[in-house]
Amino acid sequence: MNWKRKARRGLALFGHAVGYDSLERPDGKRVRKLWFDPPDSVAIVARTSDELVLIEEYRPRLGKTMLSCPAGRIDPGESFEQAAERELREETGYEAEHVELLETYYPTAGMRKRRGVVFADALTPGTQHLEPGEFIEVRTVPVADAIETVRAGPICGWSLPPLLVAQEEGLL
């Protein structure tokens, strides 16, 4: 397909790139497509010997409390693995002796944002280091029940997709 970008307008807004592209479609018609590019992010599938470490957090935009994998944005200069170690420590207090990037993907075709799925094990418990305004409860669930437990509540992109990737890799 032969789409042509004729112009791009964008700006930084609250640390995110937002804007629109003026495009010419293959039939010659011009259209504008909005875009929003937040930073890349990471979801962590954190496993003790027989449990997964999940978090429970209220999501204001949805008006729901959701159970998910620990997750967060990748800071400039960080790898997916480094961000996973930091986010796991901040949100749960756990330190991982081993982390492994399992997959990267685009959670939606409308953004250039990538999401990484990192598996973390050999965990040592510690104290949460939440950012101001974060209110996160740590939950552990048996590995065998994790997917069913997550599916029982509202599902978000931080919960089921990372667990399915880990299951496919034989880690659950």
Automatic annotation (TrEMBL):
Superkingdom of the organism of origin: Archaea
PROSITE patterns: NUDIX, NUDIX_BOX
GO biological process: nucleoside phosphate metabolic process; ribose phosphate metabolic process
Keyword Cell inner membrane: no
InterPro entries, sorted: Nudix_hydrolase (IPR020476), NUDIX_hydrolase-like_dom_sf (IPR015797), NUDIX_hydrolase_CS (IPR020084), NUDIX_hydrolase_dom (IPR000086)
CDD domains for this protein: NUDIX_ADPRase_Nudt5_UGPPase_Nudt14 (cd03424)
Residue span(s) of domain Nudix hydrolase: 35-165
Entry-linked Gene3D superfamilies: Nucleoside Triphosphate Pyrophosphohydrolase
Cofactor(s) listed: Mg(2+)
Gene Ontology molecular function: any one: pyrophosphatase activity
Pfam families membership: NUDIX
Keywords from the named record: Hydrolase
Cited PANTHER family: NUDIX HYDROLASE DOMAIN-CONTAINING PROTEIN, UDP/ADP-SUGAR PYROPHOSPHATASE
Protein known as: ADP-ribose pyrophosphatase
UniProt organism field: Haladaptatus litoreus
